[in-house]
Amino acid sequence: MNPDRIFEAFPAPSYRGNQEQALRDIRDAFEAGNDVVLVRAPTGSGKSLLARAVAGCARTVDEADPVEATGAYYTTPQVSQLDDVAGDDLLQDLNVIRGKSNYTCILPGELDTPVNQAPCVRERGYDCSVQHRCPYFSDRAIASNRSIAAMTLAYFMQTAGSEVFRKRDVVVIDEAHGLSEWAEMYATIQLGPRTVPFWDDLRVPQVDSVEAAARYAEALGRRCTSRKDELLGQESLSPGEVRERDRLQELIGELDFFVEDYRDPQSPTTWLVDQAEAADSSRDGGSGSSDEDETENPQGGPLTIKPMDPERYLRYTVWDRGNKFALLSATILNKDAFCRHVGLEPSRVALVDVGHTFPVENRPLYDVTQGKMTYEHREETLPKIARTIVRIMQAHPDEKGLIHAHSYAIQEQLESLLTDFGVGDRVRAHSRDDRDADLEAWKASSDPDVFLSVKMEEALDLKGDLCRWQVLCKAPFLNTSDSRVAHRLEEGQWAWYYRAALRTVIQACGRVIRAPDDHGATYVADSSLLDLFERARTDMPDWFAEQVDRLSEPALPEFEPRAALEATDGDGGGSGGYSRTSSHSTSSSGPKEGTGSGGSANESDARGRSQSRSRSRRGRRSSKRSPLADVWDTDG
Q1: Which helix (H) or strand (E) holds 481?
Q2: β-strands 148-152, 303-308 pairing
């Protein structure tokens, strides 16, 4: 790596904000001998441009001996972030490769077939006459042979050990704050009817320890191998059999890694096992078990095998893939804690802070707290929050707003309450199945609609008039019923717990202000957020602490639902109470309204016409697809 090349590798014609100083600090950190440089760069810093500059410092083929690693990888957990890179003219030399399922076959009669189900993977010994023109293999060849290959973190991890994507000199990971959590999620093994192709044929024991899970994993691995070999022995496979074969191969790798890591006395990984109850404890499962077996070995349900701080997994999938690393994020809040969770030695890691260039008065935080949103208090608090949202809508009659609902249950309740209050004409919601489509439709609309979102605190660019205000309905604490979270809290890792929530809040605050001349207000509705700010104060970046210090109570209009619909009715004018001008004014000491969900005559006035439109915007919520599915591209 040649850090001195960082300035000539910067792709933009000029610098903005603190980019030049950031490049200087990153260069100095690498020249000081650090293997890893953490770049804490807030929203609007141009992280992708900084990432490209670091990647450009990688050793070139002309500079290297034949055995030395050359070139760079750029990777990010977020599919949308990779899409942004692919569409940026300044980053055209980042050669993007995606998973096979993102490409379609070009053979006649197969034009609707994804490459991961094409004849080349369905038929044994198939010799594709157009493989040199196949969009997937073409992109893969280009990415593997050019100096900078760009891919999602999932694809990057999956290609560990690949002869195509070997070790490179430099690895740049954008949005790296959740690296440990991503690795934990990706290394988690789900054993159930949706993930094991022949689950209904299995007899699953009750697993009461990690040792018992390891024994069962060994037995299941042998059975998966036998079934995979059967499929490989066939001359051709149906698309369904292809999916089964690929899933079996993936599952075998997962089980082998777990057993090997668990049996290794030197491994630092802690494994946890969760098991659901059996759906039908009386079924034989085809195992020929007797009543005596059933009594001695009662049947269990689906299993989840989870690693904590999977240092060994990260070493194989990430740290062994490069010589030098740059990890960029706005929310790497504590260097030593981050290093501890991802298996890095802090003495070989430098932290570079990039200053925030957005004026603090352009990104105000407002206290509209109505009580706690914990489960036991939610029934009382949520109607108050819904009424407060109506008053915020009145203050922004012709500006788009975003509601961070935190969960689909809260989203659905809020949508119902807002419709009952008569403001449903301005409310949109997304379903699990159509997150992206519903989001894009809202963004494309010129109406001042309010979007009820779930898990959209990251990787969402709402610049300018795309959104001028947002509400944080609930402190985003991790679920304490998750065994990993519970285990850490039992060990007293409360600082980690608060850092995780603070990180999500900071990410959320960056959705509505994207440039120094942009502006957007964030309203805090859950009183637990105020407690979070106090408890996590020592881990706050200075620029966010400045926002928190200016937290104020706004003087919202009195509850009047019809006023919230002025712009949609064509009656309103002006930009409302919290447009650019008023959001920068000093706070008012006006009282916050804390009334319950009781209605007024004005509510019923607008209710009827609002219901049909609001209900038509609701998608189906029957899918069990994970809210994180849009950021994990897991097809190899």
Answers
A1: none
A2: unpaired
In which order are the strands placed within the sheet that holds 365-367?
A: 365-367, 521-524, 469-472, 401-404, 450-453, 427-429
Strand order in the sheet with 95-96: 95-96, 148-152, 72-76, 168-173, 322-329, 36-40, 349-353
Q: Comparing C-alpha atoms, which of 623, 634, 635, 194 is closest to residue 434? A: 623
Counting every residue written for the chain, the total comes to 636
Helix axes 210-232, 239-263, angle to 10 degrees: 150
The pair phi, psi for residue 132, each rounded to 5°, is: -65, -15
CA distance 433 to 623: 7
Which of 225-231's residues contact partners 24+ apart within 8 Å by CB, and which partners? 225/252, 227/197, 227/198, 228/252
pLDDT less than 50: residues of the chain:
281-294, 571-599, 601, 609-616, 618-636
Tell me how far apart the alpha carbons of residues 308 and 270 are, in angstroms, rounded to a whole number. 5
Handedness of CA 568, 574, 579, 585 (dihedral sign): negative
DSSP annotation string for 566-628: HHHHT---S--TTSHHHHTSPPP-PPPP---S---HHHHHHHHHHHHHHHHH---------TT
pLDDT tens per residue across span 232-257:
999 898 888 999 999 999 999 999 99
Q: Are 559 and 390 in contact (CB under 8 A)?
A: yes
Judged on CB neighbours under 10 Å (0-12, 13-18, 19+), 127 is exposed
The dihedral through the CA atoms of 237, 238, 239, 243 has a sign that is negative
**Terminal Cα distance for the chain, rounded:** 29
User: Cα separation of 416 and 418, whole Å?
Assistant: 6
Neighbour tally for 505: CB within 10 Å:
24
Query: What CA–CA distance (Å, rounded) separates 201 from 203?
Result: 7
Q: What is the DSSP letter of 299?
A: B
Nearest to 459 by CA among 514, 385, 537: 514
**Taking the CA of residue 506 as centre, how many other CA atoms within 13 Å lie in the half-sphere pointing to its CB?**
32
| CA-wise closest residue to 168 among 346, 345, 51, 319 | 319
Which residue bears the tokens 């203050």?
395
Please give the structure tokens belonging to residue 193.
Answer: 């009817």
Place of tokens 């960029």: 328
Cα(575)–Cα(448) distance, integer angstroms: 11
Q: Are strands 148-152 and 95-96 parallel, antiparallel or unpaired?
A: parallel
> Given this model, what pLDDT does residue 571 score?
46
Closest CA to 140 of 185, 187, 100: 100
| Residues linked to residue 274 through DSSP beta bridges, in sequence order | 304
pLDDT of residue 285: 45
SS3 296: helix
Sign (positive/negative) of CA torsion 590, 591, 597, 602?
Answer: negative
In angstroms, rounded to a whole number, what is the distance separating the alpha carbons of residues 291 and 283? 11
Report strand pairing: 303-308 vs 427-429. unpaired
| Contact indicator for 48, 32 with CB cutoff of 8 Å | no
Residue found by looking up tokens 């493989």 in the block: 131
Residue 284 CA to residue 264 CA, distance in Å, equals: 35
Task: Quote the pLDDT of residue 602.
Answer: 52
- Look at residue 528 and give its three-state secondary structure: helix
What is the spatial distance between Cα 236 and Cα 229, in angstroms, rounded to a whole number? Answer: 13
Confidence (pTM):
0.83
Distance between CA atoms of residues 96 and 117, nearest Å: 21
Q: How many CB atoms lie within 10 A of CB 101?
A: 15
What stretches of 130-177 show up as alpha helix (H) in DSSP? Answer: 135-145, 153-158
